[in-house]
Amino acid sequence: MKNLTFCITLILLLAQSAWAQSNSGVVAPVSNQLKDHPAPYLALHGDDPVAWQEWGNSVVDRAQSENKILFVSVGYFACHWCHVMQKESYQDKEVAELLNQKFLSVKIDRELEPALDGRLMDFAQAILGRGGWPLNVFITPEGEPIYALLYARQEQFLEVLDRLNQFWEKDPDKVRELVRRERQTNVRFPSAEWNLQELTTLLERAPGKMLARADLDRGGFGDTSKFPSAPQMLFLLKEYALNKDPTLKEFLVTTLDKMAKKGMHDHLTGGFFRYTVDANWNVPHFEKMLYDNASLADLYLQAGKVLSREDYLETAKTTLQFMQEAMWLDGALVASFSAVDDDSIEGGHYLWEFDELGTLLSSEEVDLVSKVWGLDRVPELEAGTLPRWEDTVAEYAAANNLTVAEVDDLLSSAKTKLVLARSSRSLPVDDKLLAGWNGLALTTFSHAYAEFGDASFKKTAESLASFLSTRLWDGESLTRAHAKGVAHGTASIEDYAYVAKGLWDWANLSEDKALADTAEQIARAGWQKFYKDAAWFTEDGSLLAPPVGVEVMQDGATPSPAAVLIAVSDEISRAVGDQDWILTVRAVVNRGQRELAATPYWFSTQMLALRQVIAGKEESEDSQVQ
Description:
Blueprint: H1 3-16, H2 40-44, H3 57-66, E1 69-75, H4 80-90, H5 93-102, E2 103-109, H6 114-128, E3 135-139, E4 145-149, H7 154-170, H8 172-182, H9 196-211, H10 230-243, H11 246-261, E5 275-276, E6 284-285, E7 288-289, H12 290-306, H13 310-326, E8 328-329, E9 332-333, E10 336-337, H14 354-360, H15 363-372, H16 393-399, H17 404-422, E11 429-430, E12 433-434, H18 435-452, H19 455-471, E13 481-483, E14 486-488, H20 493-510, H21 513-530, E15 531-532, E16 535-536, H22 561-576, H23 579-589, H24 593-598, H25 604-625
Parallel strand pairs: 1-2
Antiparallel strand pairs: 1-3, 3-4, 5-6, 7-10, 8-9, 10-11, 12-13, 13-14, 15-16
Helix pairs in contact: 1-7, 5-7, 7-8, 9-25, 10-11, 10-12, 10-25, 12-13, 12-18, 15-17, 16-17, 18-19, 18-20, 19-20, 20-21, 20-22, 21-22, 22-23, 22-25
């Protein structure tokens, strides 16, 4: 796509277009369909004056019959700026009147429609150079994206609506022609020859290239905000286990320490926040997501073993316990906790004012948490201060002539009191039960039970396996989510990949043959639905214009679902002895070498799959020789 040309052309056309009245006939008005919706994020918009519709054939058919642009707004429950734009624009009568008269408005929960969200995000990044949520995309009745914007103040949003409507009413065919001309068409990717030396070299060079973009002093990647980058960290950890590079170890330890000790980690009840808004890991964006906690618990579990760090194992264990205690609902784990409380205060559930501590704790406890958690510092946020480790228990004990055991007891007492006080504060929850994210969690609980032998981890894994295999899988296809006991959303490749992986991991550990068969069925269905003409697709069918496949799928906040599906299919195909499937896996994992070599950061899970398949291939060849 000639992205810059497209964007400039559209903006000029929007600016130059003149007002023209629509000639369409009178049609029945639409009303807001989201009142009392089972999905919490959609229900939040049920009282908006905007006549929100659900995504589906009916709204697309109506757009075509009325020749109206679809305004598709994507967000999620824990998204702070989504709530801000709702308050400023979607609850405003002037905005609603314009949307209701001139557009058909669709509200999307990105967690229910991940493939649609991905398609629209790709478009936004192509024309804007960045992405995020709320994600707002204008689409022709035929499913061609026209224009995108992220969070926008009300006056800016109204201006875009007015100009786009003028442009459309003046010459809708010109809009169609423009977007159709710029749309990419699918290509057939050539196959690559298997060259073990080249593949090995690619993998050996990847850690150095990734460290070149790392923050070696503070840990993590980037120099502004800091994300956990769990797929990348796991790849680097496994590379360190092979080569013992001291520079790599130092980076891993620095990053893991900062994430566990600073503002990313909730030091009262456990669990990790989404990311920090600063480069020093101090101030988090306060949403807690299931996928982050599942991925990070597994990362700390693996790191504890590879790096011989008991504290990392403890971090993994407490994160899993947080998931069990706070996220458990009806046999599975909920999607997320909001970044804002019921008073729309970001972080309000987690922050403390210093004067408040004196009413809850003893003077000795106040002094302790002030020093070790830095709760006497100047607050970075208006609502108060977040606990984060500024001093160690041992250092505080030495400075105050106390034993470590005495300080531990004092800190435990203070923590119990603060947890009790915090439990009375509101914390909105998105209680959807998502297939893919619970699949990730099942893999982690499987690994944790294998490591710790904890009976509660076994019970959780068994329940997750039952939920995924019996309530979300019907023998042919997966359901994306349950919300208040009702099926919702459209399953994507991530659901098939993560669920197959989770079920396979637990089936192997529990020696459950029926569950292993289900994992195999889901993996095979994943290939059938999402791998076509030598390309990966995120969705199986779409109301948007035909999707464009990719040769190799990138990591995001979660691991590349195509790479996960490749890796679990490698294990399954070798276990069942399906030679055709084995050869298919080897051929597909061998693709995209140029992209992997150029930007390995984005393909960490693909490289893990590649290393796994290489090892399996060599093992198979050795056994044949013997």
